[in-house]
Each structure stands twice: as C-alpha cells, then as structure tokens.
Task: structure prediction
Amino acid sequence: MSEINPEPSTPRKTDSWLEPGSANVMVIYILYLASFVIGISGLIGLVFAYVNRGKAGGYIETHYTWLIRTFWIGLLYALISAVLMMLVIGFVLMIAVAVWFIVRCIIGLQALGRNEPIKNPESWII
Result:
C-alpha cells in the first residue's frame, strides 16, 4: 500500500484566538459578556487572560490587566451585593454591578477596536 503524505500543516484562523493579541482579548471580552447567559464562560475568559498576560506587550497588556481586574472587582462587588440583599438594597446594587461590568467590557472593546490602550487599567470604577 502506498502512504499518503499529509500536506504541510497551515495554521487555522481560529488558532490566533488562543495566542496573545487583539483577537484573544476580543474573545475574552465576548466570553465575559456571555457569562450573563453561560456563567462558566467568564472563568474561561479569566484563564485566557492570566495565561496570555505578559506575553503580548504594547497596548494589549493594558487590556489583560483591565480584564483580570474587571473579573475580580466584579466578583467582589457581586458578593457585597449578595450579602446586602437581606437589606433589599443588594438587589439594586446587583443591577448596578451588572451595568458596571457591561460598561467596562464595552469600553475595552471600543479601545481595542481603535488599537488603543486602556487609559487607567487599574481603576476600580470605570
């Protein structure tokens, strides 16, 4: 029997989603926004951000910092809101946390689309 020689492997377009860079950052933003529907996707985005932080360089690094801090600060705000739900104000705060999270993702996506860094990636607010 004759052997079939496989063709040289060419990188797939989807491979760039996992490598550090703007495509990966966009995927993380989308995973964060999808976490409102599919909760685990936010954790997957966080893992991507941690794995690729420090590898991309340039303005992309500010996006990784922004994404990591968005997750952890959002989790902190959500836990505080959950505790305050006994006082009813937590329900309002939980909505505010969701809006804060979405706004941070949109700000990041807009800056990424303009190839700009996040102005203050270590901000607690916006």
Observations:
- The CA atoms of residues 30 and 46 lie 12 Å apart.
- The chain has a mean pLDDT of 88.
- The two ends are 65 Å apart (CA to CA).
- Helices lie at 22-34, 41-52, 60-84, 89-113.
